[in-house]
What does this fold into?
Amino acid sequence: MKKLLSALLSVLLLSSLTGCLSNNYENGELYIYLPGEYLSDEVVEQFEYEYGVKVYVTTFDSNESMYTKLLGGTVYDLLIPSDYMIERLISEKMIQKLDKSKIPNMSAIDEAVLNMEFDPNNDYSVPYFWGNAGICYDTTQIDAEDVESEGWEVMRNTKYRGMIYMYDSIRDAFMMAEKALGYSMNTDDPDEIEKSYEWLVQIAKTMDPAYVTDEIIDGLSYGEKAMGFVYSGDASLIVAENEDMAFWAPEEGTNYFVDAMVIHKDAKNVENAHKFINYIIDYDAAFENAVFVGYTSSNAEVVRDITMEGGDYEDNDAYIPREMNKNDEVFHSNEEVLKIISELWVKVKNTK
Amino acid sequence: MKKNNAFSKFYLFLILAFFYLPIIYVVFFSFNASRSLTNFTGFSLRWYEKMFKTRSMMESIYYSTIIAVIATIVSTIVGTIVAIGLSKSSRLIKQVVTQVNNLPMLNPDIVTAIGLMLLFSTINVPTGFGTLLLAHIMFCIPYVILSINPKLRQLDDNLAEAALDLGCTPIQALYKVIIPQIKEGIISGALVAFTMSFDDFVISYFTTGPGINNISTYVYATTKRINPSVNALSTLIVIAITLIMIVSNVVPLLRERRRKNEETA
It folds into this structure.
């Protein structure tokens, strides 16, 4: 027993020692905080090797839980939240301005995602991945013409009763209803919210939908249901898995999102954070990363090449989000509205 | 009577199925050839390959193991000392400390977790490996004390005195007499501590810092996208725990048999 314990202890000691000694990273460290499955390990290793920086990656499950963690006083150097969260971080002065002279590769970024409302001059953020939301459907069961002519309304077409998924996310569900009715997805008009609620109740009553979250990717890939609300990045996975599936972002407008890299105001490794930003938007790294993640890269050339003949996402209509039209919007957070629609959403889900 | 027997077998089967089906399901789909978690398309080891290639996943295994091992060792030593000390204390102290000891176990994890997070941030301790380890040691100690206490109650008080009378130093009395008597309590306390630490999520989630993920916090953050490598990881854990269970059950049996053989010889 004693021998076992001492053997164990010495192994522990050795492993922790080698852990300390084996770092030959002459340029310090970098702490990154980003959503899970959103960064290729190989790209990170390449960065460590080229720049001599040890990278620590931590992942979060939602923008909100990231925000809580930051409020708790934890400091990461580089964060990758979504548009509306960046807006909030800027207004609460939790992130710092970037030194653009250190990010020459900024010129490679797709203009479609530059100078967005949440950060008009990209003073704080550099786009990472982006996309929109739409309807993913099985072309063998759902008439493509119906989807394209009816847009979000196709979710209420009783021809397809029992065949649809509802994405169980409060703001996405209300976005769909508000866009179908021609409102802004950021509306705070009680009347419009009420009408959107009724639109959703109607689906619950007549369409017999299944409320799901991430099971939707599996469910649509393997034909358990024929149609559902999906983000473009997930849709490109579904379409890659099942050739019968197609993606359509309704013309009445949809949610555009941009996830971007920002630097924490108290970051200790500001220099390395800039190096990483510049590195990851460069063609080679961005390409490898995009193949791994499946969302639309912010590097315009990567998007072009990856969807070309022989590319990883060839013929995948979900991979390139259609150009932003005048009805498309970016989400803004509004606590008041969120509270109201959260209550309404519970009622929608309980409607039979 | 016979009918009753069939029913009880069926009942047992139901209970076992309820316990083990989810685990079997996870293990089964870790061998899937496609990305799906519901549709089995063929056997493959690609998710295992991906798991071993994913550095963050391997790191999470490393951190879970090292935290669990250190937390187990420290909490077992501290817990044993406290338990022995308590058994020699006055009744009042014994009662007070036992109650204080029970509180963290009854307290919901989430309350402990948020309390720790707030504490660390108020006294300006940066969260990370150190705070995670400290938190784990903290919540393991009460379980160790709890599992040693009954053994100490069975212990005859006079044994220690006899040892001292026969020329042991107090330290020797502790090592040669008391510890061997309560060994089973210590071992079961250590096992409980290890499993508590290894599979803890809530407290780890709130007390860990940049770059440090254990298996549960890592898996939690990855559930947003489908990743069967998580199944592969779970399978490895199931195998590891099964092995530990087998070893800890079979070794005493073997030892018993050997002792009996020696006695008869």
In short: Chain A has two domains: 22-130+257-306, 131-256+323-350. The first strand of chain A starts at residue 29 and ends at 35.
